[in-house]
Amino acid sequence: xxxxxxxxxxxxxxxxxxxxxxxxxxxxxxxxxxxxxxxxxxxxxxxxxxxxxxxxxxxxxxxxxxxxxxxxxxxxxxxxxxxxxxxxxxxxxxxxxxxxxxxxxxxxxxxxxxxxxxxxxxxxxxxxxxxxxxxxxxxxxxxxxxxxxxxxxxxxxxxxxxxxxxxxxxxxxxxxxxxxxxxxxxxxxxxxxxxxxxxxxxxxxxxxxxxxxxxxxxxxxxxxxxxxxxxxxxxxxxxxxxxxxxxxxxxxxxxxxxxxxxxxxxxxxxxxxxxxxxxxxxxxxxxxxxxxxxxxxxxxxxxxxxxxxxxxxxxxxxxxxxxxxxxxxxxxxxxxxxxxxxxxxxxxxxxxxxxxxxxxxxxxxxxxxxxxxxxxxxxxxx
Length: 382
Hints:
Elements lengths: L4 H12 L13 H5 L11 H10 L18 H5 L6 H15 L4 H13 L28 E4 L2 H5 L4 H13 L4 E2 L10 H6 L2 H18 L3 E4 L2 H10 L8 E4 H10 L13 E3 L13 H11 L33 H11 L4 E4 L2 H13 L7 E4 H7 L2
Parallel strand pairs: 1-2, 1-3, 3-4, 5-6, 6-7
Helix pairs in contact: 8-16, 12-13, 14-15
Keywords: 4Fe-4S, Iron, Iron-sulfur, Metal-binding, Oxidoreductase
GO molecular function, one term: oxidoreductase activity
Protein name: CoB--CoM heterodisulfide reductase iron-sulfur subunit D family protein
């Protein structure tokens, strides 16, 4: 019995770190059967990982084993016993993070959030560079909404177009909004999924304090990841502001006649459901209603949609990690989109935009299909 004590201690430690439902798992395999890794025959197996956690077995710390999970939530929805599988993965990563053994590329991201307020190793002062040449209102307590532009849309040259489109659309619809800017920090959702709980708590509390001080009551997010953590995790830390993902807001504005379109996009468009907008937040209809309005009903669906949508591969910190070409879910998604005959693959997440743009190039489909955020599509026709 003495030899089992260390295993028992590891199991108990994981439970204490948030994996409360670890021992409910009966190893049925529903999780592994629904995991996107199964579609690419990769090394990650969530069923095996959970069993290793139950037994307290070490050796799961590699980049593509413990850090293979994209936290897409498909396994959670399929689990017959309600095991919160992402919490188990998060707890295992947190245990590794305490030893400082997380992958070096993720250390760079977490270190950058700690020192610069963003995971892209960019100076905090550059957070507002995307605003150059635009008349972007500063937030004050006379504004109804704070527009929170995620770090990817603030710093990544491609995703900056999403932020610019949002300003154009919100202004055209007469929405009262403003931006805080360089004082803001990353929402830290991905930092928590990476396993750096201390960094998440510190960053979240800083943001909550800033928003409280500025009188923020409502927040518009450009990213489903920010939306998820602001609406589902920050309230546990005392936040009181409301959060809306832009697709929900624009859909409502369109229905109320406040957002008026001057034309339509005369191309077939297909839609990729982001994991954190769809499976995590159950927002499926509003993005589709926007695309249908913008294209005059010319929305064509891929085979895997809504709860069955294929993850792009960026969640859980994978956005900053290298993935072998044969393991890229986003490559498969590009092929699925092209099979619909659509000229545009639309989505509503900066992470998805980044992954799909890369895969469009690596699969040599640049001449066949465009990647657009829904905000960009709407901005084209107002």
